[in-house]
């Protein structure tokens, strides 16, 4: 067993010099990769580090590599490592289904692999050796070994099962040779849907499907029983392994345990579970922020204690004696340490960084602690910080480790470590750089090697145009001639490009850990001041002169898709689907003000995209939910302000049911306003990490048009849509955040692609013009313009019913906002920002995350191109600096604002909106034109309804992106070949 001094001797002394030391790159600096959060990753920075991809070795899809690794576990004998994936992981094969005559021209008919994977590695040597890959239909996060190392158990995710894999000892049908694992039993848990939701209710499609999810697993100390968390059913199941069946299930909600507590929040979204003794186990309720103690006797489970925690508990681990319980708190970047004998909290540790590196005095979240491991000596806790792309190394106090004494001065600080631990709190002594979003960490049996999995990787371009041999004069082939592999969806969807990996490294000594901590400080900007002196001067001026920020968030478009034909900046016109003729205002704003040709959105699709846009972070739940949802693997109901498709804008089931009868009346269904998908604000304030909350806390005024709304007009019939809700006093906006309700316009319809953005802007103009008449206007104005998402063509009103007209409508609406502000009393003290929440539905030759960001108004540079890389986090930081707000989380606190966009001499500005020609084919009341316009959409609404018949437009990004993008390309580009992946070099 390696001594604790291997990690900790002199670490604090070494780390204390990091801020003052030279942090310039060494000659052997590892390759650094920038990611769209604004951070850098260096996964192979450690001496002796080995980074391996996860190759399922599919003969029909040799290029396939899965993403979203979520769990890993070392067998008790120390020889085998298991890794589980759980996410998107859909891959179209190169093979053509020759039996289908339409396969050569229809990409949706190509073979597709839809699997998760269990990887097994031999770790008896320093570098893990791949042993076997097992395909699994669905999984979530549960993964563990039997006590004899001969069986592996994995959760079945939305299949509501636990799967057993048994060491066969033969090569027959196992695919792995001698001692390979073969599929054993499948344990069914018996849930038909998530708790309290009737999927057969004909009204239920309003809410969407809600499926069970098998979550965490824990094996009893004697190896005979398995505890399973039912994430979407708020319960735990007890499996008898000998009998192969469920022998007990315990609902964890207070009202289900004791009727006297009906309607009281508690026990929901149980994710992690651990057994500490033969009769005691603990389960973490992620949504309700509590650790629940369970007494287990035979086939009986009883809830005995509820221990609240500050933050969402997502992972549990215990020491060997079961006397200490450690909980990773995703939303507060912390670890809670409990004594199990008395169920008392011993310590809470901020694991963001060593205090000498970043003291985190404001208690900012964003590190997203999501997995734990104890070193074999049980004196060091390893914490996977997904949001930091790092593993924190925590020196445990004697009290926290459960050990009463030590010998000598093991941490080399000049003090005798035999003294009581009350003088020695647990503390972070170092950080280890990892790949993007680490999701699990374990050590070898002797602690000499550490293993870390990650869920994401950098992506690169989405697509590039048809490739031709150098010097070729032949045109790209037409659709009829191109081979099928160029016609199918090219596996270039963002979540297909984000790959998982396995990092192995020797346990670092003190000096190596100090060096690696400096590397993380560079990667995450801990080593840089929040603002340079020049930035401080610039933003002090802007703060004095810009009093209003209008923040517009739109949907899904990539840079090349809209601005590839701009003529300035780094665009590729071959990939442009909505050129200047369709989006003239986007083009005019980019040309007249600042062309940002290297702006990357930080989120993948709408769920995380909106989180990043207003919170500069996600939480760990979101990171695991979103890929599953996009792949139709469950967990589809946690949109902005929804849990299990239930709006949290009202705190009780009674009020929800009274407001809308389709909502369940049961008081124990999602009681309260806890939001499992919402990050926490400064100081660990629950679920308040939103830009509007930061503004209100800073004494600024806020008005909201469409953010975080429960739109009840999804796919509504055209006859039911009201163009001017204010005139009829018909409420159309219902907030999913009660804190935002007083600041929201009830007459502004949020996401609904069947309702033109033109009418949304008319409602916004009504209120803005009132501000202009009486002054003042709100400091922060939030506007949702989502019709560049497209959809609901058959239900759309006013002839805005094709991608061209919906994009043109969105474009013109944006132009109207600029015109309104330019002619208002606020023209000289207002900044207008428009971004996309994500870029998932468009091709781009630079990066899948590259998107459209437009800035206009006072002090914005004019006729300029800025190619510096900025991200969504940069936008949030810029708004904070201009309005004088504090940071929301670590990411924006450590980010630099967008200084290069501003010119203190550019005060005067004007804007005249342009009506896109194709929009005149609609019935919108547009201004007259003095020249004839013949532009019409390429296809009718009926064509698009048929082409998109398999898509779900009931909410943002519920579509299948591969087939959606392909249908969009085919309908707008005709016979132009679908873009192929970049040529391999």
Walk me through what this model shows.
With 985 residues, the chain is of the alpha+beta class. The chain contains 21 helices and 43 strands. The strands form 13 sheets. A 5-stranded mixed sheet has the order 38-39-33-40-41, with helices on both faces. Strands 3-32-31-30 form a 4-stranded antiparallel sheet, with no helix packed on it. Strands 4-5-8-9 form a 4-stranded antiparallel sheet, with no helix packed on it. The longest helix has 20 residues, at 803-822. It is globular and about 85 Å long. The relative contact order is 0.12. Mean pLDDT is 88; it is low at 1-27, 170-176, 406-421 and 465-489.
What CATH calls the topology of the largest domain is Methylamine Dehydrogenase, Chain H
Largest sheet: 5 strands, mixed
Radius of gyration: 28 Å
Poorly predicted residue ranges: 1-27, 170-176, 406-421, 465-489
CATH superfamily grouping of the largest domain = YVTN repeat-like/Quinoprotein amine dehydrogenase
Strand order of the largest sheet: 38-39-33-40-41
Derived from helix and strand composition plus strand pairing, the structural class reads alpha+beta
- The figure for the number of domains is 2
Q: What fraction strand?
A: 15-25%
**Range of helix content:** 10-25%
């Amino acid at each position: 067993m390696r001594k604790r001094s291997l990690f900790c001797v002199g670490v604090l002394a070494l780390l204390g010099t990091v801020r003052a030391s030279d942090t310039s790159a060494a000659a052997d600096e590892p390759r650094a990769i920038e990611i769209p959060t604004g951070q850098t990753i260096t996964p192979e920075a450690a001496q002796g580090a080995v980074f391996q991809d996860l190759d399922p070795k599919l003969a029909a899809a040799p290029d396939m590599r899965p993403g979203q690794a979520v769990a890993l576990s070392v067998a008790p004998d120390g020889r085998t490592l298991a890794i589980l994936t759980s996410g998107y992981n859909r891959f179209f094969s190169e093979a053509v289904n020759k039996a289908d005559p339409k396969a050569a021209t229809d990409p949706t008919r190509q073979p597709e692999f839809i699997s998760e994977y269990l990887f097994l590695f031999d770790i008896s040597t320093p570098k893990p050796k791949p042993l076997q890959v097992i395909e699994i239909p669905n999984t979530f996060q549960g993964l563990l070994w039997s006590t004899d190392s001969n069986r592996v158990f994995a959760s079945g995710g939305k299949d509501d099962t636990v799967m057993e894999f048994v060491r066969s000892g033969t090569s027959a049908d196992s695919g792995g040779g001698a001692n390979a694992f073969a599929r054993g039993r499948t344990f069914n848990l018996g849930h038909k849907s998530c708790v309290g939701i009737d999927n057969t209710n004909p009204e239920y499609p309003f809410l969407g499907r809600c499926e069970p999810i098998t979550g965490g697993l824990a094996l009893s100390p004697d190896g005979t029983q398995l505890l399973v968390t039912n994430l979407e059913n708020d319960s735990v199941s007890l499996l008898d392994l000998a009998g192969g069946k469920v022998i007990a299930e315990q609902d964890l909600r207070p009202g289900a345990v004791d009727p006297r507590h009906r309607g009281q929040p508690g026990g929901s979204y149980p994710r992690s579970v651990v057994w500490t003794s033969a009769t005691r186990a603990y389960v973490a309720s992620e949504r309700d922020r509590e650790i629940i103690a369970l007494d287990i006797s035979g086939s009986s489970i009883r809830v005995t204690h509820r221990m609240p925690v500050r933050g969402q508990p997502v992972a549990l681990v215990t020491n060997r004696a079961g006397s200490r319980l450690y909980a990773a708190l995703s939303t507060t970047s912390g670890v809670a340490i409990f004594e199990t004998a008395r169920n008392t909290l011993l310590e809470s540790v901020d694991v963001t960084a060593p205090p000498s590196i970043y003291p985190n005095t404001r208690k900012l979240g964003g590190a997203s602690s999501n997995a734990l491991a104890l070193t074999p000596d049980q004196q060091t806790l390893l914490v996977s910080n997904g949001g930091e792309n790092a593993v924190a190394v925590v020196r445990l106090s004697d009290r926290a480790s459960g050990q009463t004494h030590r010998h000598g001065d093991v941490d080399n600080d000049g003090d005798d470590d035999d003294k009581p631990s009350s003088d020695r709190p647990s503390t972070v002594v170092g950080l280890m750089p990892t790949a993007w979003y680490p999701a699990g960490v374990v050590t070898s049996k002797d602690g000499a090697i550490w293993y870390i999995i990650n869920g994401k990787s950098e992506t690169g371009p989405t697509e590039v145009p048809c490739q031709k041999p150098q010097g070729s004069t032949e045109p790209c082939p037409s659709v009829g001639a191109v081979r099928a592999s160029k016609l199918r969806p090219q596996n270039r969807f963002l979540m297909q490009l984000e790959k998982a990996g396995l990092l192995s490294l020797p346990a670092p000594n003190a000096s190596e850990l100090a060096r690696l901590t400096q590397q993380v400080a560079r990667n995450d900007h801990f080593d840089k001041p929040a603002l340079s002196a020049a930035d401080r001067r610039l933003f002090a001026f802007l703060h004095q002169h810009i009093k209003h920020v209008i923040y517009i968030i739109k949907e899904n478009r990539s840079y090349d898709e809209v601005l590839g034909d701009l003529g300035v900046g780094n665009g590729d016109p071959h990939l442009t689907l909505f050129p200047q003729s369709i989006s003239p205002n986007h083009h005019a704003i980019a040309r007249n003000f600042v062309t940002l040709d290297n702006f990357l959105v930080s989120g993948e699709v709408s769920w995380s995209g909106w989180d990043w846009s207003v919170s500069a972070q996600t939480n760990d739940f979101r990171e695991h939910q979103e890929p599953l949802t996009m792949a139709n693997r469950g967990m589809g109901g946690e949109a902005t302000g929804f849990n299990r498709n239930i709006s949290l804008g009202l705190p009780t089931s009674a009020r929800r049911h009274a407001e809308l009868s389709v909502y369940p009346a049961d008081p124990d269904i999602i009681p309260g306003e806890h939001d499992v998908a919402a990050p926490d604000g400064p100081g660990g304030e629950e679920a308040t990490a939103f830009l509007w909350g930061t503004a209100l806390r800073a004494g600024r005024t806020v008005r909201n048009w469409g953010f975080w709304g429960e739109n009840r007009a999804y796919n509504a019939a055209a006859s039911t849509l009201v163009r001017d809700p204010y005139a009829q006093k018909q409420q159309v906006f219902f907030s999913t955040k009660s804190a935002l309700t007083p600041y929201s316009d009830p007459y502004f319809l949020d996401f609904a692609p069947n309702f033109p953005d033109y009418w949304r802007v008319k409602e916004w103009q009504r209120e803005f013009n009132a501000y202009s008449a009486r002054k003042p206007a709100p400091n922060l104005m939030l506007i949702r313009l989502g019709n560049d998402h497209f959809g609901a063509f058959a239900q759309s009103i006013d002839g805005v019913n094709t991608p061209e007209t919906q994009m043109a409508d969105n474009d013109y609406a944006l132009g109207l906002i600029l015109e309104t502000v330019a002619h208002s009393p606020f023209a000289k003290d207002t900044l207008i920002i428009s971004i996309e929440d994500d870029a998932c539905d468009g091709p781009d030759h630079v990066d899948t995350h590259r998107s459209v960001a437009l800035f206009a108004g006072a002090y914005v540079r004019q006729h300029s191109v800025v190619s510096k890389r900025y991200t969504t986090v940069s936008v949030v930081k810029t708004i904070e600096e201009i309005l004088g707000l504090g940071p929301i989380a670590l990411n924006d606190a450590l980010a630099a604002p967008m200084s290069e966009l501003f010119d203190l001499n550019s005060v005067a500005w004007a804007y005249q909106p342009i009506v896109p020609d194709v929009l005149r084919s609609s019935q919108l009341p547009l201004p007259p034109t003095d020249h004839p316009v013949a532009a019409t959409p390429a296809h009718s609404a009926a064509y698009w309804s048929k082409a998109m018949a398999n898509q779900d437009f009931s909410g943002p990004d519920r579509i299948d992106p591969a087939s959606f993008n392909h249908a969009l390309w085919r309908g707008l580009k005709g016979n132009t070949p679908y873009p192929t992946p970049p040529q391999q070099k």
